[in-house]
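In the design runs reported in the main text, the only information available to the sequence generator was the tokenized backbone. The following block is the verbatim input for one such run; it is reproduced so that readers can re-run the procedure and compare outputs position by position.
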């Protein structure tokens, strides 16, 4: 059996600091801890595209995007990368507010063009400056603060008949704002429609050499020692199956048709059998809304985690441009851009809940030396 407690999973063993413990830290240590909270956020393909610059004298953190991890096939505009940073920002805000600090955020780059992948993928893009200021601790955030350490994507079958509590759906719906709209879908007929679009998107990914090779580069064998990427166990794949699918997608061996079919239909079936689907759309497809969408997504994930509810991102509809447009026009009757889509529910098989978190770089690898 593969050991998922190696160095590429060690960051998840961090013990959450209590308010009084955090207050005793030096400014540099406090900022490092808040960066760690951000680092535990989800990211597209688990690229962890953020790099943190700490300025203890100013009590500031600058979040940069590392251009190398803007994926050229599935993230042609850098949208999903920026959304990932929005998720990291939500974690940082949650932890800071709980521990007795408020933050002020400044957007450093709002030109969409600079986030597009290029042949020269070296260097960093400064995205956000975060100013930390002393405030009263918000102990009402204790459960979602703890959820930062427990949150993980669980790509598995959910109990279709176990509905999400209405009061929790109301809390999620309350995160709507003027720019970002949250759509919650629980009726079976509409879920079936969404699942058809997801099936088309995943089928496109598997049959596109560019998409499938990129997916294979990030969908890894279960025994991988990589600090980034998605080991197959996260998709419920056994050791041999994960290795075979990885090798098939990157072209090392012919892709087993059964493996490709299982992967391309898994998302469709998952959406069909989940009690609630959630997706976010934006009035304007701009950098500010990408960050805002990421914040909302992670806030929802933390709420769900705190209530023992699991969730799975489904990137196909958001990443395949044609499917995204068709879905918006035919399902929503709008041109609003879909920025994120995921399903939620209660886990059906207990063993699926025991899967490991995704790997992570150690904190020192994502902090820039001054």
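Verbatim output:
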């Amino acid at each position: 059996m593969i050991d998922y407690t190696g160095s590429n999973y060690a960051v998840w063993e961090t013990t959450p600091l209590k308010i009084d413990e955090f207050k005793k830290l030096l400014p540099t240590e406090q900022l490092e801890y808040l960066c760690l909270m951000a680092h535990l956020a989800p990211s597209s393909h688990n690229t962890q595209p953020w790099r943190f610059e700490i300025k203890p004298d100013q009590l500031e953190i600058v979040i940069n995007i590392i251009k190398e991890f803007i994926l050229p096939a599935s993230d042609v505009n850098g949208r999903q990368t920026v959304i990932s940073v929005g998720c990291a920002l939500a974690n940082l805000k949650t932890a800071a507010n709980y521990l007795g600090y408020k933050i002020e955020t400044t957007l450093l780059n709002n030109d969409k063009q600079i986030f597009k992948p290029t042949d020269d993928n070296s260097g960093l893009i400064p995205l956000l400056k975060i100013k930390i200021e002393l405030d009263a601790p918000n102990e009402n955030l204790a459960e979602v603060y703890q959820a930062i350490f427990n949150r993980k994507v669980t790509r598995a079958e959910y109990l279709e008949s176990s509905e999400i509590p209405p009061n929790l759906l109301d809390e999620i719906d309350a995160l709507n704002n003027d720019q970002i709209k949250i759509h919650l879908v629980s009726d079976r007929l509409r879920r079936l429609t969404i699942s058809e679009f997801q099936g088309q998107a995943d089928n496109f990914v598997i049959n596109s050499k560019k998409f499938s090779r990129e997916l294979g580069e990030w969908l890894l064998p279960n025994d991988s020692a990589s600090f980034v990427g998605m080991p197959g166990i996260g998709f419920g794949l056994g050791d041999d199956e994960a290795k075979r699918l990885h090798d098939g997608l990157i072209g090392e061996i012919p892709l087993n048709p059964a493996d490709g079919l299982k992967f391309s239909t898994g998302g469709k079936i998952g959406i069909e059998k989940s009690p609630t689907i959630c997706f976010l759309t934006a009035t304007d497809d701009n950098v500010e809304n990408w960050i805002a969408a990421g914040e909302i997504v992670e806030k929802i994930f933390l709420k769900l985690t705190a209530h023992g509810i699991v969730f799975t991102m489904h990137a196909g509809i958001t990443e395949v441009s044609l499917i995204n447009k068709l879905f918006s026009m035919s399902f929503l009757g709008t041109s609003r851009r879909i920025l994120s889509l995921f399903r939620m529910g209660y886990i059906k098989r207990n063993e699926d809940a025991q899967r490991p978190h995704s790997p992570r770089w150690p904190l020192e690898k994502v902090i820039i030396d001054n």
